[in-house]
């Protein structure tokens, strides 16, 4: 009431200044829908509240039409018509809030003292997922391991084969990965024989994997580690503070998803919390002030190296062989600092290395290492900005620089520039410096220009030096399936100009180069052909230059032996997963031919990415065999809130070696259940309903609640979340014919 009377006094003061125009004061009106919070434009004239009709109904998922002084709001089941208020307005349609509530109550509840508009539990037309129970898609909550590995003495094998023929003769080789001996067996035959056997414990933290290997020529090796088989993608959270307009709405957005949202205070101060991923995170901070001012946006960049551990985490890796014994330790001291050390014994000589990984700035990481007793020091730097990336490495011994390297790239519009540099010292007698700048131009129409310069200078005895340089310029047309370039190359060995290009067809590709060597006065021709079939792939390469003709050919493919025998033209050992999300019409959790795949439901796989197949399934390839992968279904992509996955929103699976794992997720239809709490003697916001001892729904201002459940018998309990006191308990049988019931806080005692 204090806030309302303050508005009344202010409006009366403004009315003393003018007697002609009606004065409207814009006020921040927070609207909370289940699963969403937003600000809508509202005004107060001292007696009544007005609200932006288009803003309101679009937030309620209605289609809005404004014709003259009328507003029509439509959805699949309802039609509302309002007259725009005859108040001073430049644009839009202001609606008296009491008229809106007359038609939408009890679906909307307006708390006038708090300027808070909230959806009631009876609003089944809106999403029935509470914002307090909505788990953001980036929260890495470990889900149940529903699709695990099946340890067998023999569980299948995949062999990748290759036969190569060149000027050195014919060389066959075979790589194998098998599920055998309750673990994983890998082997390679070709120019010798190697094998290794590994056994893993994904659920353990003290030891996750142990490996025994035969490296050929009588050498063997044992390794062990407690590194997770899949490193967590989420490293830590960052707190962002700042200043904006008073009462502005602030949002933190990552990859198009709002990960946090707050309203600034009266002084414009705000505090956001956002997740930071391993690798690079690009975060957008949006600021929308009241009064319709244009949205302000700024971008924050965060770089988190893979070697940076979460605080209080410690990982080790051990290696034992005939010649080497090594133990590597890492410990996360702070979110931005990880310490590491390594003990290595080789040829009866002990070597100790210590260092740290530091991220002093959000876009900069430093990696330092010191080796004893050699007094070797290393420093690696990585900088990541939106248009500039820099990687540098230095190595020194006893205050003398041994080698260094630098790679920097910058881009602006269609232009990209890359600079590479390197310095190497050879036993203190000579040094070599080299620099390689490159310039690229990519035009939207396909035009491509590439210019490159190379310079190498060699110093001997700090006085004698030699300089070698070369350059290349190429221009032409480039498309996704074809490219043709005219080029000129010049260095100390040759002066070559000509044409080069490639052409990609369905299962074949052809690349070529035709040129003239001016120094040797001879033509230079190269040709590369790739052709694939269901059984294998053929690669042919041939080149003619001043030194003669060279050529090579090789065939490759793979054979998978499991429930049946299949062949593939690809040579890599690939593990993949196909996720089929379907509507389980008959409720048996089995994908029947008549039950369609739902193509719009999205999922998130940590340490991987999806490709949508034509069938509507999600497909992810190049997975690491026998590693556990976490999957989360994105709740916002489930358009029908009555559909719920039988697996739950989170689950994990283990990738099978060399196989495509089929995972089916049954979306089962739930029953909408509504209820009402009567005889409430305390604030409804303090209350929460729990079903079978699990938190499921908040209780709204009118005492109602709404949720979706499978058919069955449930125990509903009303809990005071401040005291954790159970106020009422009732057992209810939910079936398709029962949608609503009441809980009385005086009669339904526990």
Descriptive notes:
This protein is mostly beta strands and 750 residues long. Among the domains are: 25-131, no CATH class; 234-304, Immunoglobulins (Immunoglobulin-like); 574-669, Immunoglobulins (Immunoglobulin-like, Sandwich); 671-744, Carboxypeptidase-like, regulatory domain (Immunoglobulin-like), CATH 2.60.40.1120. It has three helices and 56 strands. It has a 24-stranded antiparallel β-barrel. Strands 7-3-2-1-9-8 form a six-stranded mixed beta sheet. The longest helix is centred in the first third of the chain and has 16 residues, at 2-17. It is globular, with a radius of gyration of 34 Å.
Give a quick rundown of the structure.
By secondary structure, the chain is mainly beta. A hairpin with a 3-residue loop joins strand 34 and strand 35 (482-490).
For the sheet with most strands, the description reads: 24 strands, antiparallel, barrel
Share of residues in strands: over 45%
Instruction: Provide the helix percentage.
Output: under 10%
DSSP, total strands: 56
Low-confidence stretches: 1-21, 121-135
Which structural class do the helices and strands define?
A: mainly beta
**Backbone shape:** globular
Rg, Cα atoms, Å: 34 Å
Work out the helix count: 3
Q: How far apart lie the N and C ends?
A: 37 Å
Mean pLDDT: 81
């Amino acid at each position: 009431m204090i806030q309302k009377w303050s508005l009344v006094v202010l409006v009366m003061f403004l009315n003393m200044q003018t007697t002609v125009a009606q004065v409207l004061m814009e006020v921040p009106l927070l609207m909370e829908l289940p699963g969403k919070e937003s600000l809508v434009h509202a005004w107060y004239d001292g007696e009544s509240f007005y609200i932006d009709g288009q803003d309101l109904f679009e937030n309620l998922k209605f289609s809005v039409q404004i014709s003259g002084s009328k507003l029509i709001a439509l959805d699949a089941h309802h039609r509302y018509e309002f007259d725009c208020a005859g108040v001073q307005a430049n644009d839009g349609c202001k609606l008296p809030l009491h008229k809106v509530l007359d038609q939408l109550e009890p679906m909307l509840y307006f708390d006038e003292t708090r300027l808070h508009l909230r959806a009631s539990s009876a609003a089944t037309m809106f999403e029935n997922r509470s914002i307090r129970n909505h788990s953001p898609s980036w929260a890495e909550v470990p889900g149940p391991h529903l699709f695990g590995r099946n340890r067998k003495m023999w569980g299948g094998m995949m062999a990748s084969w290759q036969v190569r023929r060149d000027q050195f003769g014919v060389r066959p080789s075979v790589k194998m990965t098998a599920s055998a001996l309750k673990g994983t067996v890998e082997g390679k035959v070709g120019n010798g024989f190697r094998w290794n056997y590994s056994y893993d414990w994904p659920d353990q933290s003290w030891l996750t994997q142990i490996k025994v290997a035969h490296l050929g020529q009588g050498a063997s090796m044992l390794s062990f580690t407690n590194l997770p088989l899949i490193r967590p993608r989420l490293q830590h959270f960052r707190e962002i503070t700042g200043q904006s307009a008073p009462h502005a709405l602030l949002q933190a957005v990552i990859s198009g998803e709002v990960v946090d949202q707050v309203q600034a205070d009266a002084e414009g101060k705000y505090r956001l919390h956002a997740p930071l991923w391993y690798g690079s995170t690009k975060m957008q901070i949006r600021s929308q002030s009241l009064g319709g001012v244009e949205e302000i946006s700024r971008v924050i960049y965060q770089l988190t190296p893979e070697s940076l551990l979460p605080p209080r985490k410690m990982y080790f890796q051990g290696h034992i062989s005939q010649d080497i014994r090594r133990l590597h330790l890492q410990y996360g001291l702070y979110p931005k600092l990880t310490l590491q050390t390594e003990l290595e014994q080789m040829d009866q000589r002990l070597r100790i290395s210590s260092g740290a990984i530091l991220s002093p700035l959000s876009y900069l990481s430093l990696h330092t290492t010191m080796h004893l007793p050699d007094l070797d020091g290393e420093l690696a730097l990585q900088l990541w900005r939106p248009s500039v990336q820099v990687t540098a490495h230095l190595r020194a011994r006893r205050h003398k620089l041994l080698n260094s390297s630098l790679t920097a790239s910058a881009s602006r519009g269609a232009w990209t520039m890359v600079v590479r540099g390197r310095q190497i010292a050879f036993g203190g007698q000579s040094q070599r410096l080299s620099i390689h700048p490159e310039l690229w131009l990519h035009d939207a129409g396909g035009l491509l220009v590439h210019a490159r310069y190379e310079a190498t200078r060699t110093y001997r005895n700090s006085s004698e030096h030699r300089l070698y340089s070369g350059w290349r310029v190429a221009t032409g047309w480039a498309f996704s399936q074809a490219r043709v370039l005219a080029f000129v190359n010049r260095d100390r060995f040759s002066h070559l100009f000509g044409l080069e290009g490639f052409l990609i067809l369905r299962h074949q590709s052809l690349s070529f180069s035709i040129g003239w060597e001016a120094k040797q006065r001879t033509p230079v021709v190269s040709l590369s052909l790739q052709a694939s079939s269901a059984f294998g792939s053929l690669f042919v390469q041939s080149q003619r230059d001043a030194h003669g003709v060279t050529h090579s050919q090789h065939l490759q493919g793979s054979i998978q032996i499991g429930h049946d025998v299949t062949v593939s033209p690809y040579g890599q050992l690939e593990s993949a997963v196909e996720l089929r999300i379907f509507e389980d019409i008959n409720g048996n959790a089995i994908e029947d031919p008549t039950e369609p795949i739902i193509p719009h439901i999205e999922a998130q796989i940590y340490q991987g990415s999806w490709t949508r197949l034509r069938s509507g399934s999600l497909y992810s390839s190049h997975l690491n065999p026998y590693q556990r992968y976490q999957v989360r279904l994105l709740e916002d992509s489930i358009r029908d809130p009555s559909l719920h996955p039988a697996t739950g929103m989170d689950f994990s699976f283990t990738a099978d070696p060399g196989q495509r794992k089929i995972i089916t997720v049954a979306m089962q239809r739930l029953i909408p259940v509504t209820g009402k709490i009567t005889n409430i003697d305390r604030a409804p916001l303090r209350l929460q309903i729990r079903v079978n001892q699990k938190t499921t729904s908040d209780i709204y201002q009118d005492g109602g609640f709404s949720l979706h459940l499978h058919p069955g018998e449930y125990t509903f309990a009303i809990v005071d979340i401040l005291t954790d006191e159970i106020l009422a308990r009732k057992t209810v049988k939910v079936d398709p014919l029962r949608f609503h019931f009441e809980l009385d806080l005086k009669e339904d005692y526990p």
